[in-house]
Specification:
Shape: globular
Number of helices: 12
Protein name: YafY family transcriptional regulator
Distance between the termini: 74 Å
Low-confidence stretches: none
Radius of gyration: 25 Å
CATH architecture of the largest domain: Roll
Strand order of the largest sheet: 6-5-4-3-7
Strand content: 25-35%
Number of domains: 4
InterPro entries: CBASS_pafABC_assoc_protein, DeoR_HTH, HTH_11, PafC-like, WCX_dom, WH-like_DNA-bd_sf, WH_DNA-bd_sf, WYL_dom
Number of strands: 11
GO molecular function: DNA-binding transcription factor activity
Keywords: Transcription, Transcription regulation
Pfam families: HTH_11 (PF08279), WCX (PF25583), WYL (PF13280)
Mean pLDDT: 84
CATH topology of the largest domain: SH3 type barrels
């Protein structure tokens, strides 16, 4: 990257955040701190109102904006892929905003790049999984993002799939997490007085409250996920199914945390994320010798125990 392109990229980065440290710029553009200081000085001397100094971070004076950014063909293509995935993995509330953002991005592209975007759009598709209708995405993702960003508590009506009850909850949301083909809200539940994982598609009604909560008293989403993994609240599972039995699964696999699959010559390898190895194991019994556990060993041992119990029961 030549210096002019680098200065433009640094300026764009400065405008993307409230405050940026010199070390952050150095790490992103693979340059020394001394070079960062020289480039910041060059921007300041060229009339860009850079506020701050080495050690405390830099920001751009409020009100200063670059002209519309010109995207490269590769950047525009990457955004197109992101739009396709957003349409598949989010709900209508997010897709609407992403589509308008994509239109604004296309408006600043060169004519040749617009033509490439239109051509690529017809040749890229994400196939939607056949998720059961009752587990279809809700319309709450945009509201949940706003609640998290504004540190506002929320009121929800939540349908529990385990006991078929609908309960009223007040939640202090700390993040959104996507796993097992579903979006999950992680937050502090005042009703249960503890952190809970809520599947977004089971939220029947959501209302943002006026009150704000102190986010600093809660762990970050990343720390919470690490805690879940270390406490084995979620389990990664890899299974091998004979091809001739896969057709009998239909939509059932989604209830047990199905994530993705790989087709091999003689079998289908499936990946799951589940909170209950016991529930998954009991479901697998119906496939008898047409399924094999590749990971974890705990599930393999559990299957052997259940098979032994069935043998004793029917004898």
């Amino acid at each position: 990257m030549n210096r002019i392109d680098r200065l433009h990229a640094i300026l764009t980065h400065l405008q993307s955040k409230k405050r940026v440290t010199a070390q952050e710029i150095a790490d992103r553009f693979n340059m020394s701190l001394r070079t960062v200081y020289r480039d910041i000085k060059a921007l300041d001397e060229s009339g860009v109102p850079v506020i701050g100094e080495a050690g405390s971070g830099y920001t751009i004076m409020e009100g200063y904006r670059l002209p519309p950014v010109m995207f490269t063909q590769e950047e525009a293509a990457a955004l197109l892929l992101g739009g396709k995935l957003a349409a598949h993995m989010t709900d209508a509330s997010v897709k609407k905003h992403f589509e308008t953002a994509l239109f604004k991005i296309k408006a600043v592209l060169r004519t040749t790049d617009k033509e490439q975007m239109d051509m690529l759009s017809d040749h890229i598709e994400v196939i939607r999984s056949r998720i059961p209708e009752e587990e279809a995405p809700s319309q709450h993702l945009s509201a949940l993002q706003k609640a998290i960003a504004d540190k506002r508590s929320i009121f929800i009506l939540y349908h529990s799939n385990y006991n078929e009850e609908v309960s009223e909850r007040v939640i202090e949301p700390i993040g959104l997490c996507h796993y097992g083909a579903n979006w999950h809200l992680i937050g502090w539940c005042r009703l249960r007085n503890g952190y809970r994982d809520f599947r977004v598609s089971r939220i029947k009604r959501l209302q943002l409250k006026d009150e704000q909560f102190d986010l600093s008293v809660h762990p970050s989403l990343q720390d919470y996920i690490k805690t879940m993994a270390s406490s084995h609240a979620l389990h990664e599972v890899v299974l091998r199914f004979d091809k001739d039995v896969v057709k009998y699964m239909q939509n059932q696999k989604y209830w047990y945390g199905f994530v993705r699959e790989e087709e091999e010559k003689d079998f289908i390898r499936m990946y799951f994320v589940t909170g209950s190895l016991e529930g998954l194991a009991r479901w697998l019994l119906m496939f008898t010798n047409a399924v094999r556990v590749e990971f974890p060993d705990t599930l393999h041992t559990m299957m052997k125990a259940y098979c032994a119990e069935m043998k004793d029961h029917y004898q």
